[in-house]
Amino acid sequence: MSAPVFLAEAAGLAVGTVVLEGPEGRHAVSVRRLRAGEEIVLTDGAGTGAYGTVAGVEGKDRLTVTVTDVRTEPEPRPRITVVQALPKGDRGELAVETMTETGVDVIVPWAAARCVTQWKGERGLKSLAKWRATAREAGKQARRLRFPEVADLATTKQVGALLSGAALGAVLHEEGSAPLATAALPGDVDGAGDGGIVLVVGPEGGVSTEELAAFAEAGAKPCRLGPTVLRTSTAGTAAAALLLARTGRWG
């Protein structure tokens, strides 16, 4: 099994002795029960990882790590952004979790016209914080060094602007005439100058006619995944997996 990953301050990621304490230290000591000699990876969540072994454990929330190697991963290309309409209940966190594990780079919560769930005031801030915490924990679980960005809640107009700058923009839709499996990909897979891939996942009630028109004006076409209809909480993960394989990021 690969070494567990824990979040640490970027300034502390260097060869030598590093101290992990606080909530992450508590999780490592009291939950994962790491002991001296075990391998561990510390990351800033922005692409840098410090690899080493546990040198010692102090109390219930502090351990020292002997770091022998520090690596920084380049930003993956093409970047994959999923615009996720707000699902009902805890399905939003499920979507964030699985998209993070799959390899999505940016997740944008979207207040679509037909969303049953609405993020307003204090409730909206708490929901956004949950999505970000879910992405952070799923990133560690997936052994990622670069955690996905969870953006602020976007309006339809803001999603349109995001799509207009994409190298490939697509709206997942069961009645889409073109399959996502054959959509033209950004020509520059290495990423120099490409606008990345932006996928839009609608709510349980579907994407409205007005939203489809706005997204089409921004250059995004409706695309279908396959013969079955996926739930809003799983469609983004399935589509991202398809594109990760097609672009070679899973190669």
Automatic annotation (TrEMBL):
Domain of life: Bacteria
Species assigned in the record: Streptomyces daliensis
Any one annotated GO CC term: cytoplasm
Keywords: Cytoplasm, Methyltransferase, rRNA processing, S-adenosyl-L-methionine, Transferase
Catalytic activity: uridine(1498) in 16S rRNA + S-adenosyl-L-methionine = N(3)-methyluridine(1498) in 16S rRNA + S-adenosyl-L-homocysteine + H(+)
UniProt protein name: Ribosomal RNA small subunit methyltransferase E
A Pfam family hit: Methyltrans_RNA
UniProt domain Ribosomal RNA small subunit methyltransferase E methyltransferase: residue ranges: 76-243
Classification via NCBIfam families: PRK11713.2-3 (NF008693), RsmE family RNA methyltransferase (TIGR00046)
